[in-house]
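B., you asked whether I could sanity-check this one before it goes into the benchmark set. Here's the sequence:
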Amino acid sequence: MEKTEVQDPEYVRGAFARICKRYSLANHVLSMGTDILWRRKVGRLVAGHKPSRILDVATGTGDLALELQRACPYAEVTGADFCEEMLELARDRGLKKSLVADGLNLPFADDSFDAVTVAFGLRNMSDWKKGLQEMSRVVRPSGFVLVLDFSLPEGVLRRPYAYYLNKILPRIAGILTGQRDAYDYLAGSVERFPSGEAMLDLFGEAGLREQTWKPLTQGIASIYTAKGPVEDF
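And here's what the prediction gave me:
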């Protein structure tokens, strides 16, 4: 695969299809298991709202959707992804409900879910605002949207983290998955992705309200949440 500087849908789909069998393992190794803790935190946050219907967009191999199933046993959790190969692994791992769907064109009616989540997936969509607008559309006004994704730390950690992201991470991931170029792309996508206040601005443009931002692990990841749009009368 050639390295790309944009989120081309076919490139992204192909990249994830190639790395799907070792995707979760690579994530755990590269983050030294911290990504598991991040998802557990998300699970606790979502469970605190007691949602009945949850949609996990860009669910991939189901890491977050499976955590939501565990944390919210009373809820119906649906995992959606546009890569069938990754969804097959999610089902094998125990994801009860899933479907192939593009995050930019979700096949659900307006106001269908109490919670809509996406972990490390919005960043790979070709239009971040459109992705948030679709999540805003399918979430109920009383519900909420949650995004978990990488961000760039501020201060003294920024330069060493950028070095790790661009030089070390692709090498290790290449050994684990045999697909270094896919991780060259993923590393670059982190640096291009809006974080902090810039992400909150995108939430507002998508119609979401009462946005919050919580940095994790010195800012190398962040959780963003917002309530659904105000209901029209």
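One thing to flag: The first strand starts at residue 53 and ends at 57. Otherwise nothing jumped out at me.
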